[in-house]
């Protein structure tokens, strides 16, 4: 079974977007380099960022998101982003009316059900959980193995927090990866498992 990784771009003060969901300059690093990250022609990063991000993306089998992220992206028009095979949506509601039942999106109720479904679909590949409320729920539930952050040099001041509404302490190991790209610092932390 593959590891579960929480991932997102984040401001230095810990936000993944403003209250209105606008990421502002958090993604500047994704379009300011000279190395194409994917086939879209839009995402161009520094060589250091490419060498860090591309191998990770190639290992991701499933992404878990909340219903809010699904809704504001219009469900990526039924095509999972970044070339991944499946998206698991944590929601108390059914798929939107008229949604293509053959699209590789799975609607489940609760974080444990989401991780179980995602691991079933991903096999030995990585299960990625979007940061924010759903990622925070997964961290609080003890199912996150690693936290990845693409830290942009911006202070948003307020907004949607990287760890959502997590209210208790969670320890990380020392950074397993620190990569300096252009307009971004890539960090990876393993989540420290607390003894029972």
UniProtKB/TrEMBL annotation:
**Superkingdom of source:** Bacteria
Q: Name one GO biological process term.
A: riboflavin biosynthetic process
The record places domain Bacterial bifunctional deaminase-reductase C-terminal at 3-173
Cross-referenced InterPro entries: DHFR-like_dom_sf (IPR024072), RibDG_C (IPR002734)
Pfam families in the cross-refs: RibD_C (PF01872)
Protein name per the record? Bacterial bifunctional deaminase-reductase C-terminal domain-containing protein
Organism of this sequence? Microbacterium trichothecenolyticum (Aureobacterium trichothecenolyticum)
- What's one GO MF term for it? 5-amino-6-(5-phosphoribosylamino)uracil reductase activity
